[in-house]
Amino acid sequence: MNPNRPVYLKLRDQIAAAIIDGVYAEGAMLPSVRALAAEQGANPLTVAKAYQQFQNDGLVEVQRGVGMYVVRGAAERLRAAERETFLREEWPEIRSRMTRLGLDPADLALAT
User: Fold this and answer.
1) Tens of pLDDT along 25-77?
2) What is the dihedral of CA 28, 14, 76, 90, to 10 degrees?
3) What is the torsion angle, in degrees rounded to the nearest 10, for the CA atoms of residue 101, residue 106, residue 107 and residue 109?
4) Which residues contact residue 81 at a Cβ distance below 8 angstroms, ignoring those fewer than 6 apart?
5) pTM for the full predicted model
6) 65 phi-psi bin (left φ>0, alpha ψ -120 to 50, beta other)
7) Chain segment 76-110, per-residue pLDDT in tens
8) What's the farthest any 2 CA atoms get from each other in the chain?
9) DSSP letters along the chain, please?
10) How many CA atoms lie within 13 A of 106 on its CB side?
């Protein structure tokens, strides 16, 4: 993770991982802004900004006065986006480092 990345994007990444991992299943209610802010030691406005990103992307829906819920298909959409980001941004750097270190992908299978 990039240490210079804004806090709301780091929170967004944590929430996205929780949705992908099923911690927040499709149809489940996300913690309130205040509850998540207290849990993470973050400013509620920062949490609200992270949640707004999910709302803008159509991954959650707000039931006014009730809460925010994960929509159907959110986990798969997030997984696909994470894969694309990994292959576009992270994998080239990893592949370059493996080449530099003389590692073959088959070596990685033996290391686990």
Assistant:
1) 999 999 999 999 999 999 999 999 999 999 999 999 999 999 999 999 999 99
2) 180
3) 130
4) none
5) 0.83
6) left
7) 999 999 999 999 999 999 999 999 999 988 888 77
8) 57
9) --TTS-HHHHHHHHHHHHHHTTSS-TTPBPPPHHHHHHHHT--HHHHHHHHHHHHHTTSEEEETTTEEEEPTTHHHHHHHHHHHHIIIIIHHHHHHHHHHHT--HHHHHHH-
10) 0
- Side chain identity at residue 72, one-letter code: R
Residue whose pair of structure tokens reads 């959409």 in the numeric block: 77
